[in-house]
Amino acid sequence: MIMNLPVEFITRTKPLLGEEWDLFVEALNVDAPTSIRCSKYKSSIEKESSFVLWSSRGYYLNQRPSFTFDPLFHAGCYYVQEASSMFIEQVVRQYINDDIKILDLCAAPGGKSTLLADAMTEGSLLVSNEVIRSRANILSENITKWGNPNVIVTNNDPAQVGKLNGFFDFILVDAPCSGEGMFRKDEGAMYEWSVDNVKLCKERQQRILADIWPSLKSGGLLLYSTCTYNLEENEENVQWIKDELGAETLPVEVKDKWNITPSFVEGVSAYRFFPHKTKGEGFFCALLRKSEASDSVQRRKNEKERKTKLDLPLEYKNYINQKEKFIFYSKNDKWYAFPSGLSSDLMVLNSQLNTISEGIVLGEFKGKDFIPSHSLALSNYLNIDAFPTNEVDWKTAIAYLRKEALILDNQPKGYILLTYRDKPLGFVKNIGNRANNLYPQEWRIRSTNIPTEEVAVI
Ligand code: SAM
């Protein structure tokens, strides 16, 4: 594909790249590589593949398969993520060793949140927020599939989240931007591009940053990222954070062979990814530490303990491993498990933000029945021994994901966990002559173009 780059984009970007410009344009005319990141808790790649150099679980694929028809994709075994953005793992590795509270402010569809969930320590909390409701639902779906119980998905604008004074130790602002780095992957980004839009994006990014800043504790870290190249939305905004909000940039160690481009502005540490130098799309990030002087930590504590009158019978608590590490409570008729060490934070967040999902949804009572939820099936803490399991082949797995009724041979009546290549896929209720499909209706595969051959990505 030959790209017709906007003239003004050329005028503005060519001087930044100098003699590398032709190589850059050449790279834009090559197909974008496809990459995935495997889940720390659920999978590793079995096929021969090449690694994303700056990631511990990222791989390039030789072609782009139909992920929709790989059951392991729906089981949360891997996430399809553009390779450059996997670099944020390096920041976490180099700067985060303790249990902390993390906010991913602009999180949908969830690529960086799922990465953070794997990279953070087991006692850390991740608040994964998205301002647009429909996108928050997709985010929640992806987080549920990923299976980490220490995550809360919220749907708030940055100003509302910003009211949590000094609450977070680490904030990722993966800002909505003019998307210059996505031109070859998404041609639409190129047609929407204009100088005016760059200016609007810059102003919006500053508003978002100013709104969220109070919720970062003094001395806390903010990772700012975009998928665009221009100086205004990148180094200039980082300089603006330093000057107007009070912060310093911090270095991230990189290896020469990664071919990452340093900042274009002296005094601002930042990391740039260009497709002619690194195998991935355009990406920018800078790590900042909030100045100590502007300390205003006032962690809001909610004195009220969560009062659940009913307790969940032990047999259902046993649905998860290490149950002693969790609190169990009911909310809107559903039973939840949430890491007990983070329960007071959960209360604060629930009282101030619009929570879409949290922890593990264990299930709900219908009459005498306790219906296990899909969130439980995909949780990293699922106690697989608590249920009869039925390993299914690819065709049956796809039928399940299409929410068709199944017929299972030689299985007891009741709730049965289906597995595919030994990974939990979801529950059915076997009633004898057929099994009712408990896969979430809104997540089902709608496409009828089912491949004739099995799709197996990892
Ligand atoms: N971090 C995501 C990931 O890795 O999958 C991608 C985030 S995308 C670059 C930016 C997100 O910001 C979008 O989901 C968009 O809906 C959201 N957004 C748009 N306007 C916003 C605003 N005014 N404040 C906060 N977020 C906004």
Short description:
With 458 residues, the protein is an alpha+beta fold. It has helices at residues 7-17, 21-28, 71-74, 88-95, 111-119, 133-146, 158-162, 187-192, 195-212, 235-246, 314-317, 343-352, 374-377, 394-401; strands spanning 34-38, 50-51, 58-61, 78-80, 101-104, 125-129, 151-154, 168-174, 216-226, 247-250, 261-262, 271-273, 283-290, 326-331, 334-339, 355-358, 360-366, 369-372, 389-391, 414-420, 423-430, 435-437. It has 14 helices and 22 strands.
**CATH topological fold name of the largest domain:** Rossmann fold
CATH architecture of the largest domain: 3-Layer(aba) Sandwich
**CATH class (first level) name of the largest domain:** Alpha Beta
The Cα radius of gyration reads 23 Å
How far the N terminus sits from the C terminus, by CA atoms, comes to: 29 Å
Q: What form results from the Cα inertia axes? A: globular
**Overall tally of domains:** 2
What profile does the largest beta sheet have? 10 strands, mixed
User: What's the total helix number?
Assistant: 14
For this structure, what is the CATH homologous superfamily of the largest domain? Vaccinia Virus protein VP39
Please tell me the overall pLDDT. Answer: 94
Low-confidence stretches: 295-305
Bound molecules: S-adenosylmethionine
- Helicity range: 25-40%
Class derived from helix and strand content: alpha+beta
Strand content: 15-25%
How many β strands by DSSP? 22
